[in-house]
Write a structure and sequence with these properties.
By secondary structure, the chain is α+β, with helices and mostly antiparallel strands. The chain folds into 3 domains: 76 residues, Alpha-Beta Plaits; 229 residues, FAD/NAD(P)-binding domain (3-Layer(bba) Sandwich), CATH 3.50.50.60; 194 residues, no CATH class. Helices cover 29% and strands 25% of the residues. It is built from 13 helices and 23 strands. The strands form 6 sheets. The protein has a 7-stranded mixed sheet with strand order 14-15-18-13-21-19-20. It has a 5-stranded parallel sheet with strand order 7-6-5-11-23. The protein is flat.
């Protein structure tokens, strides 16, 4: 099979346009083309807006075609992707997977395919129940007494935006995407440059993946909260958890710890258990909202609104004179800012989009990178405490009601409090109050944002819209700690048989990278069984 890169296509291209372009590059007639399949499609808006594409092609007499091509041709031979199959094996006791985010789900999925019948501990509740409870909370500010869901457990994650783009190049990425498609995700994620499922579609995919795990012999325990682990001679022998008010224990030979970046109780347990951990840099900032139609115009110019383009997105970064990075993250076209607190009396913001991305506003995290030197203490959980102080201060600034502090961009840059909204109405569901971000964020973060925002304007003209809305705080861009693991075995450096995984452990930065980490760990467990 041949892969052709950097194909230029008009916005309204057809399948025939694609085949014509492919045949021109390969210098062969269209009748020689057996199959043509997109593997990547991206928007190029540098001059006249168009698509750039990569395609996998099968042709008659592949070697003859290659011989005719000049050395400059961007064509290479590739092997078709084949989903891996895992050899069946067994362990004395089922492996335990703690956490049902992407890292945990994909680890459990691989282990189940190999016949190890994993037990998956999900501290929250089924997706439909969680959505109902969290929607009730968003609308009323109160927990739904009819839903047995503890505050924050499985709540914010229900509204994950489903972004699947990643900066990593691991070949397992294709495995993740193919799996999502098999679970109901749109097939276009296989070739989009920035694949996106959307909160609404993700809520369908996750139960489907869970059913695949169960069909392969795995067990999912909802409402099961890990409370600790027991080791003998430095090796894990059991996992303890609570469910429906009862304490229970699972005998096991290995456990995947994939609890996410907000499982602060697990971080505290790991510290007490003596597991090696270290402080890790993360980022702090706000959510910025523009009108989506303005972002479309800033990015696409006259082509804005073309049906083939959809809602525009951006990714911006700059460095201040102090060397701090200021950047956008988790940009949600046509989306909303959401409440994502995981503890009482705190305010945390996040963003989400539905698959259609047809909301009025665009929002993105606007962040400043911070290092352990900014945490204010040397102990490993100092970053967690910094996050908590900010989130509690934001709750107080909002009047203790769950409302979030907001300010207009122009007023923020002028260091003055806002009095009225302009064309952009905030989408944060629990309401807002006008306040300067200094009410909760460190002054150095706010000053870095003030210096960095004009620099971002140079990269996206129009970004500095006076009535754009800043909503504070965004504190959960990544984990503030890393659970150290052996680079070869991927086990915890302090407990053999325990595998820290994904974002919470400090080894991933999004859905796909966390899922890939879960697959890597499952494969390492299988390699140990087969050795």
């Amino acid at each position: 099979m041949l892969r052709i890169q950097d194909l230029s296509l008009p916005l309204s291209y057809t399948e025939d346009d694609l085949r014509q372009r492919v045949s021109a590059v390969l210098r062969c007639g269209q009748d020689a083309l057996r199959t043509v399949r997109l593997v990547r499609l991206a928007v190029d808006a540098r001059k006249q807006v168009h698509f750039t594409a990569s395609a996998d092609v099968t042709v008659q007499d592949e070697e003859a075609v290659l011989r005719r091509l000049p050395e400059s041709a961007k064509v290479q031979k590739v092997q078709p992707f084949v989903m891996p199959h895992y050899k069946k094996c067994s362990l004395p006791h089922p492996p335990v997977v703690i956490g049902a985010g992407p890292g945990g789900l994909f680890a459990a999925w691989i282990l189940a395919q190999a016949g190890l019948c994993p037990v998956l501990l999900e501290r929250g509740r089924p997706v439909a129940e969680r959505q109902r409870a969290v929607q009730h909370y968003y609308m009323t500010g109160q927990l739904d007494p009819e839903c047995n869901v503890q505050f924050g457990e499985g709540g914010a994650g229900t509204f994950s935006d489903g972004k699947l783009n990643t900066g990593t190049k691991d070949p397992r990425i294709r495995q993740v995407l193919e799996t999502f498609v098999s679970c109901g995700a749109p097939e276009e994620i296989l070739w989009q440059a920035k694949p996106h499922i959307g909160t609404d579609r993700l809520a369908v995919c996750i139960p489907a993946l869970r059913r695949q795990i169960e069909a392969a012999g795995g067990t999912v325990l909802f409402g099961a909260k890990c409370t600790g682990m027991t080791a003998e001679n430095g090796r894990l022998v059991s996992v303890e958890y609570s469910k429906d008010g009862a304490m229970q224990s699972l005998r096991t030979d290995c456990a995947v710890l994939a609890v996410g970046h907000s499982a602060r109780d697990i971080f505290e347990w790991a510290l007490r258990a003596g597991l090696p951990m270290e402080q890790k840099p993360f980022s702090l900032g706000v959510r910025i909202e523009h009108l989506q139609r303005d972002i479309d115009r800033f990015c696409y110019g006259k082509a804005a609104g073309h049906p083939a383009l959809g809602a525009a997105s951006y990714k911006l970064a700059a460095h201040t004179k102090s060397g701090r990075g200021v950047y956008t993250f988790c940009m949600c076209p046509g989306g909303t800012v959401q409440a994502a607190a995981s503890e009482p009396e705190t305010v945390v913001t996040n963003g989400m989009s539905l698959f259609s991305r047809d909301g009025e506003n665009a929002n993105s995290a606007l962040l400043v990178g911070i290092s352990p030197a900014d945490f204010g203490a040397e102990d490993v959980l100092a970053g967690v405490r910094l996050q908590r102080r900010i989130e509690q201060a934001a709750f107080r600034a909002g009047g203790g009601t769950g409302k979030a502090p907001v300010i207009l961009l122009a007023d923020f840059l002028k260091r003055q409090k806002s009095a009225a909204f302009g064309s952009v109405q905030p989408s944060y569901p629990l309401g807002t109050v006008f306040a300067e971000p200094e009410c909760c964020l460190p002054e150095f973060v706010c000053e870095s944002l003030r210096e960095g925002i004009p620099l971002l304007e140079r990269r996206l003209h129009g970004f500095v819209q006076p009535d754009a809305v800043l909503t504070a705080p965004e504190t959960r861009s990544s984990s503030p700690v890393r659970l150290l693991r052996d680079p070869e075995t991927l086990e915890s450096a302090g407990m053999r048989g325990l595998y820290p995984c994904g974002e919470g452990a400090g080894y991933a930065g999004g859905i796909v990278s966390a899922a890939v980490d879960g697959i890597r760990i499952a494969e390492r467990i299988l390699a140990g069984v087969h050795s």
